[in-house]
Structure formats: structure tokens, C-alpha cells
Amino acid sequence: MIEQFVMHVPINVAKAVLKPIVESVDTHEDEVNSIIRGLIIVEDREPNTEHFWTLWSLFAERVQAAPWLKHVDYRHVHGSEVIRSLFLGIQWKEDARHWRSLEGHTKNLHTLFEKLPLSAVVFDAYIRFLYGIGEQSLPDAFIRIAKRLMAGDPKQLLKNSNTVFMLTVILQRYVYPKPLLVKSKAEMREAVLSLLDLMVELGSSAAFKMRDDFVTPVSA
């Protein structure tokens, strides 16, 4: 009822209603996560897109100051599901590759990714987004991922095997069928090659094959 209500009332009323919920992100992560997911579902069924992103930003900004954020990769620390929900990580249809409510607002997700601390949970949430409904942010997002990985400990940031699997799949969508697209710009080529090199170090046989194919000159 709260989710339906705040999505349909004037924004100042919605902010006032959500204020105590947003402020409880430090101590009641599970309940806050449920609200965020509910807002996504309401937006999907009854779009009020500008309104939705304004409410989304309330939670995104507050999470950046959450005391648990710097420990989010530790076992038994709550908050990881809040991060995943902010990156729209709900149960979408298996073949969903885009969400109409992202149009004109995708930058919100990229900015959040760059503002949050370097974390395996954050990387998993962002790559999961790209793997599914955020596919239209590719291949440019490869550059962003490579830069963030190089700013930290890549092996730690990709310690989740599922993250590596999803990154492998989205790379496969471009290295094999669209090689010219990812080789035409030097920055893009370097980013993809660095990602493949890293995944080879992590023991990915699929990445080894992709890298071998990627460094082979493209026929005219």
C-alpha cells in the first residue's frame, strides 16, 4: 500500500512519507529492500517514470552513507540485497534485455556504480544489471568496468563465480558477433582486452578462447 501510494501522490508528499523509511536503511535493510523492490514493480506495471527515479534517488543517496556499506562484502553483513535492488535486480523475465523506464535515466545506474565503494557486491549487482535489462548500456560499460577493476583488487572484486560467469556471457555477445564494434575505438579495445586478460588469470577457459579470437586481426 505504501509503494502504490507514494508512486501516485505529489512528490513532496511521497518524500515526506518515505523519509523515515529511507532513514532506516542503516538498521532495517531487509524492510527497506522490500520497499525498493516494490517501487520497481509498481513502476513496471503503472509507469510514472520521472516520479520513480526521484524516489529511487532518495534511497541511492542514503545508501552511500550507510555504515554497513564499507563492510558489505563480509559474510553476515546485511545490505547486499539493498545494493542489488538499487541496480534493479528483481526477477525479470528470462529474456528481458531492456526496461522502458531506463530510457533517459540509465546514467543513474552508472553514476551509482562509480560512487559506491569498490566491492564484490557492487560489481555483481552492476554486471547483473548489464547481463539483463541493462544490455543497451553495452559495450560502453566495458570501459567503466575495466577502469573500476584497475582501481582496486580485481581478483577480490570478481571473487563471486556468478559475477565472472555473467561478465563472460556479456563479453561473448560482442567479441564473437560484433568484433569491429569493440575494436574500432582504442579505449574500448584496451578495456575489453584487459577484462579478458584478467578473466584468463582467474582461470576462465571461455575467456582464454575469446582472448585468442579477439587479438586475431579482423578480416576486411
Write a concise synopsis of the structure shown.
With 220 residues, the chain is mainly α.
Report low-confidence residues grouped into runs of 5 or more: none
Silhouette: globular
Q: Specify the biggest β-sheet.
A: none
* Rg on CA atoms, Å: 19 Å
Give the number of DSSP strands.
Answer: 0
Helix content: 55-70%
Judged by helices, strands and strand pairing, the structural class is: mainly alpha
Encode the helix/strand succession as letters: HHHHHHHHHHHHH
> Total helix count?
13
Task: Round the mean pLDDT to the nearest integer and report it.
Answer: 93
Percent of residues in β-strands: under 5%
The N- to C-terminal Cα distance equals 59 Å
Would you write up a description of this structure?
With 220 residues, the chain is mostly helical. It has a domain at 139-220. 63% of the residues lie in helices and 0% in strands. It has helices spanning 2-6, 11-23, 29-45, 49-63, 80-86, 106-115, 120-131, 141-150, 154-157, 161-175, 179-183, 186-201, 205-214. Helix 3 runs antiparallel to helix 4, helix 5 runs parallel beside helix 7 (120-131) and helix 8 (141-150) crosses helix 12 (186-201). The radius of gyration is 19 Å and the shape is globular.
